[in-house]
Amino acid sequence: MASVGGNLLQRTRCSYFYDVVQPCNKRVPNSGCPAIDGYNRMHSILGASSKCITAHPSDMCVALAALDAVVHTTEPSGDRKIVLVDFHKLPGNTPEIETVLLPDELICSVELPPSTFAKNWCYLKVRDRASYAFALVSAATCLEIENGQIKSATIALGGIAPKPWRAVEAEKLLVGKAPSEQTFKAAADAALENAKGYEHNNFKIEMSRRTVVRALKVAAGGVA
Ligand SMILES: Cc1cc2nc3c(=O)[nH]c(=O)nc-3n(C[C@H](O)[C@H](O)[C@H](O)COP(=O)(O)OP(=O)(O)OC[C@H]3O[C@@H](n4cnc5c(N)ncnc54)[C@H](O)[C@@H]3O)c2cc1C
Ligand code: SF4
Fold first, then answer.
1. Share above pLDDT 90 across residues of the chain, in percent, rounded to a whole number
2. What is the CATH number of domain 121-221?
3. What distance in angstroms lies between residue 58's CA and the mean position of ligand 1's atoms?
């Protein structure tokens, strides 16, 4: 159905997860992760663990993370609100548990709080083909610019971590600065500071830096 709830809960595209003759800690806990020493081109460079290095595939969730979205749910004991950045879990030692949703809990709606950056935003998706392809790297950037200075900033990255990834340190670095290529490069460096590549996806580190810089430039330029 390509529903909003389904998009939030879509599962990994890791080929080992779908190949049932392969071990996979996410499919069969404690069976191993062949992606770590295998073909890991699409996998994570941030937030991975020694149990699982898969990347979250969604585009929509990356934009929702940048927009500070709130997921409204219901379960037999009541309703609750979950901030989107807390909705997905990092793999840690339990990669089979992907979200904080309980087994009998339903997503009812997703709330987008009022935003302060009507004109200064960008969603940039870098992929192998022009259409019908998941992100190698994506970036959602939102800037609130007042009197030539960045008053607030949000940056979320996709395709490079097991959950939509907010680049909090990079966001902090932008606040109070004038939008410039130099500032954007410093923010991109901060966003990727702890990145760790694997044999086939090392290129994603520099690609992510460039994606962040370009998405910030487009956001700063403003949309009509
Ligand atoms: C070839 C292909 C390319 C794609 N490309 C992209 C892409 O580039 N970017 C992108 O973001 N996505 C992409 N998708 C994902 C797609 O857009 C869907 O969001 C995704 O496949 C989930 O499908 P669905 O929405 O139909 O959910 P379903 O498959 O119906 O549901 C997924 C899971 O969520 C559960 N669920 C659904 N709704 C709720 C709810 N309200 N509460 C609790 N649980 C619920 C279901 O029980 C199921 O377990 C792609 C998918 C395919 C197959
Ligand atoms: S990266 Fe995760 S999903 Fe892929 S094989 Fe390893 S444990 Fe399984």
1. 96
2. 3.30.390.50
3. 9
| Cα gap 120→122, rounded to integer Å | 7
Its pTM stands at 0.96
CA–CA gap between residue 177 and residue 169 (Å, rounded): 14
Domain ranges within the chain, ordered by starting residue: 121-221
* Longest pairwise C-alpha distance within the chain: 59
CB under 8 A, 24+ apart: contacts of 113-119:
113/67, 113/68, 113/69, 113/70, 115/67, 115/142, 116/144, 116/151, 116/152, 117/142, 117/143, 117/144, 117/145, 117/152, 117/219, 119/222, 119/223
Choose the residue to mutate in 54, 198, 201 for probing ligand 2, maximizing ligand atoms within 8 Å of C-beta: 54
